[in-house]
Amino acid sequence: MSVASAFEKARGEGRSALVGYLPAGFPDVDGSIDALKVMVDAGCDVIEVGFPYTDPVMDGPTVQAAAQQALEQGVRTTDVLRVVEAVAATGAPTLVMTYWNPVEHYGRASGRNGRSGVDRFAADLASAGGAGLITPDITPDFGQEWIAAADAHDLDKVFLVSPSSTDERIAMTTAACRGFVYATAVMGVTGARASTSDLAGPLVARTKATTDLPVGVGLGVSNGDQAAEIAAYADGVIVGSALVRTLLDAGSDRAAGLAALRALTEDLADGVRRG
Question: Given Cys at both, which of 39, 98, 147, 189 links 20, Cβ 3.0 to 4.6 Å?
């Protein structure tokens, strides 16, 4: 199923889609595959596989801690692609959320035969069954190489808009997106919060005025009630840090971590259906 089809299916059921995030390689590669499969089984419509990176400027402490654990265990691009392949095999559309530097590094390391490195990354992602990329640190006006590679390999391009974006920037960004548009609900780094941002609703309205694409809201959702609140006006509810936290809190007790992850995902899935 494509990302567009997942949002369409949710819309047909009169609800928002639930988009769940977890870094590849956390708590280890096989553990991240198991966890992501639990999230799919418990109600996530779309999966974001995080690409661990050493300079995660948008990530809060929870996601940073998980990504650091993955990096310390030596997670590599090939591992990220293996996670994507395993999760995409469930039928859930699977995107990679990544900073741009790892994509460029992969390209420099593997570009050959006259093909750009970015194109090779896109080809390998498509071969793994990936749906596309969410790229938080590049905008369409600086992402032409990725846009060309994504178009060549039929991959979705998910760029971000924020409360500080001008109407002109929002229109430029949504015109370049495919799959959905990622609306960051708060100004700042990722992390679960006690309440959702009052900036999210107006941002979604401004974004929807420029596009027919679904608009997903992320940054800060930590429970089903918050998911229901956002689902009342957004096409998708994006959850990351709260899901990561369940595994961090469980430590070495994998069974307890997966049980907590399932319970939270089910609560969030119930929330998007109440919105």
Answer: 39
Q: Report the alpha-carbon distance of residue 140 to residue 113 in Å, rounded.
A: 27
161 residue type, one letter: V
The crossing angle, in degrees rounded to 10, of helices 117-127 and 100-110 is 100
pLDDT at 164 over 70: yes
b/e sequence 48-65, b meaning 16+ C-beta within 10 Å: bbbbbbeebeebbebbbe
**Structure tokens given for 69:** 């654990």
Q: Decide: helix, strand or coil at residue 59.
A: coil
CA-CA distances (angstroms) from residue 13 to 6, 70, 208, 211, 214? 11, 37, 20, 21, 15
Three-class secondary structure of residue 159 per DSSP: coil
Domains located in the chain, CATH noted: 3-274 (3.20.20.70)
Which residue type occupies 239?
A: V
- Residues 19 and 3 sit within 8 Å (Cβ to Cβ): no
Written as six digits, the tokens of 105 are 């590094």
| pLDDT greater than 50 at residue 45 | yes
Q: Map tokens 């994504």 to a residue.
A: 150
Buried b vs exposed e over 147-179: b needs ≥16 C-beta within 10 Å? bebbeebebbbbbbbbbebeeeebbbbbebbbb
CA distance 247 to 63: 11
Mean predicted confidence (pLDDT) in 187-197: 45
Q: Which are the catalytic amino acids?
A: 48, 59
Residue 169 confidence (pLDDT) above 60 = yes
65 pLDDT exceeds 60?
Answer: yes
